[in-house]
Specification:
By secondary structure, the chain is an alpha/beta fold. It is built from 5 helices and 10 strands; from the N terminus they run ββββαβββαβαβαβα.
């Protein structure tokens, strides 16, 4: 039976519907995770929740200890991991407020600790990353979104940039030419580390603003927070449906 882990991003500090029981802050070979991992019960199933940016201080995307976060989730027994990301919209369909379940990504980050392979095993860990998001977990998310009439974009390419600054209009133009539909800062190396650790991984991306140069209005952090507040309720509804469907289906 699957054990779900959920990694919250900007604007998702708490997981509505999760009845908290205890928290865990395991030591890992890579240091401490961003904050204690909340263990709770959802529809009678154990679910683990981690805010990747920490609390109360916010860890910027390029300073997050992704290896410790993913290792800790694996150590707790997580098999299926859903990541929540706040992103900017690049393509015409990815308008502010849209919910996107991407199927591809392009990694533009640099300097991050992006693998648990330190060579000590004596074998190269060449993981297959052709499809960076788990097909079955994505299928389950899409099925719940459709069944609950939650508007969503069923496929997209997620550009992951270094941050913490937002992009220039020229950079967004380049990302569009590369085939990217949305842009965020925390999707990698998280997805690859989950694959190395043999956890199914999928993402729910909330479009909180038009990417640079995609609107005549300047990017407003206050407007982004308002959108996050609204869409986090929809994300919670989607996650609730995912756990409930898995429980009733015996997954």
């Amino acid at each position: 039976m699957s054990t779900f882990g959920i990694v919250g991003g900007t604007g998702l500090d708490q997981l509505q519907g999760l009845h908290s029981q205890q928290s865990h802050l395991p030591d890992t070979p890579f240091g401490k995770p961003s904050r204690p991992i909340q263990e709770g019960s959802w529809h009678g199933r154990t679910v683990y929740f981690l805010q990747r940016h920490g609390a109360p201080l916010a860890i910027p995307p390029h300073k997050i200890n992704y290896r410790a976060n993913m290792w800790a989730m694996k150590h707790l027994g997580v098999t299926d991991l859903v990541a929540i990301n706040a992103v900017g919209g690049i393509s015409a369909e990815a308008t502010t407020g849209a919910l996107v379940i991407p199927n591809q990504l392009i990694d533009y980050t640099w300097g991050r600790e992006h693998t648990i392979d330190d060579g000590s095993s004596g074998e190269l860990q060449h993981i297959d990353f052709t499809e960076p998001y788990d097909a079955e977990l994505r299928k389950a998310l899409l099925a719940v979104a459709t069944a609950q009439d939650i508007p969503h974009i069923a496929s997209a390419t997620h550009a992951v940039t270094q941050g913490p600054r937002l992009e220039t209009a020229a950079e967004i133009h380049r990302l569009e030419k590369d085939g990217c539909d949305i842009v965020g800062m925390t999707g990698m190396p998280e997805a690859a580390l989950a694959r190395e650790l043999k956890m199914a991984y999928a993402a729910i991306c909330m479009v909180v603003n038009p990417a640079a140069g995609r609107s005549d209005e300047p990017i407003s952090l206050d407007a982004m927070r308002d959108t996050l507040k609204q869409k986090s309720l929809v994300v919670a509804q989607l996650l609730n449906g995912l756990v409930r469907a898995a429980t009733s289906g015996g997954r």
